[in-house]
Amino acid sequence: MEKADTGGPTPVDLTAAAFFDVDNTVMMGASIFHFARGLAARKFFSNSDLVKFALQQVMFRVGGKETVENVRTSREQALSFVAGHTVAELTALGEEIYDELMADKIWPGTRALAQLHLDAGQRVWLVTATPVELAGIIARRLGLTGALGTVAESTDGVFTGKLVGEMLHGAAKAHAVRSLAAREGLDLRRCTAYSDSSNDVPMLSVVGTAVAVNPDSGLRETARKRGWEIRDFRTGRKAAKIGVPSVLGAGAVAGAVAAGLAYRKRAS
């Protein structure tokens, strides 16, 4: 005899959770560039400031090796654009920009994976180098548990344009996940992590189940060697094109600039 469905709440799984990278894993492209586009449309930057920043990013993405220091410098340049603005102001704008430029950039496949964990009673966190305020907005809009992100310094509620501590990148993500697991009583062997980037191998390695989502060439190779699951939600792309993340990153920056300038021209 089958038991009737009582329709009760999903039992909470207290020791298992899922951790998702954001850029190119949950969201198409880089969240901070979508945010920059929205700020450019609101005339937060001069044309010369936006172009200068974008060119620095393109040069770094195409010609530079991604080291912790280089990424930190890159992120600080991005954060410098919010210096002098209040946390409340930027958070409110982040909500608007999410609706305008980010909501339709969420990968449906990744969103479905996150929902599977939620439906199983597990908590789901975003773990990203993106500023924690923006990461928190994305997590909240997707109905997730919360977000771990890079902390931008603020004094009396006003951003200084500097970082607090190290940015959440590479090995720092693994450390943050371990710390969260210790605080929340999670068994990392029962946890799952998702990312597109070989930079997140440290985070993927600390959990029991690692999944490569839209992986770059380095992560794809690592996933195959370690027997990790690979999920690729990109369409219309040949395998040869999947292994050029630096060029794709440069294109994302250039696209952000072009879109930002176009917005400004239409708004003026």
Report on this structure.
It is globular and about 50 Å long. The chain has helices at residues 31-41, 47-63, 68-79, 87-102, 108-119, 132-141, 171-184, 201-205, 217-226, 239-242, 245-267, and strands spanning 17-20, 123-131, 146-150, 152-155, 158-163, 192-195, 209-213, 229-231. The longest helix is centred in the last third of the chain and has 23 residues, at 245-267. The chain is α/β, with parallel strands linked by helices and 268 residues long. Helix 1 crosses helix 4 (87-102), helix 1 (31-41) runs parallel beside helix 11 (245-267) and helix 4 (87-102) packs across helix 6 (132-141). The strands form two sheets. It has a six-stranded parallel beta sheet with strand order 3-2-1-6-7-8, sandwiched between helices. Strands 4-5 form a two-stranded antiparallel sheet. Helices cover 50% and strands 15% of the residues.
Q: Roughly how many Å apart are the termini?
A: 70 Å
Task: Give unreliable regions as ranges.
Answer: 1-6, 59-65, 237-268
Q: Sketch the major β-sheet.
A: 6 strands, parallel
Quick one: overall form? globular
Q: Can you give the helix content as a percent range? A: 40-55%
Strand content: 5-15%
* Helix and strand run: EHHHHHEHEEEHEHEHEHH
Q: Please count the helical segments.
A: 11
Structural class of the secondary structure composition?
A: alpha/beta
User: What value does the Rg take, in angstroms?
Assistant: 19 Å
Strand order of the largest sheet: 3-2-1-6-7-8
Give the number of DSSP strands: 8
The chain-level mean pLDDT equals 80
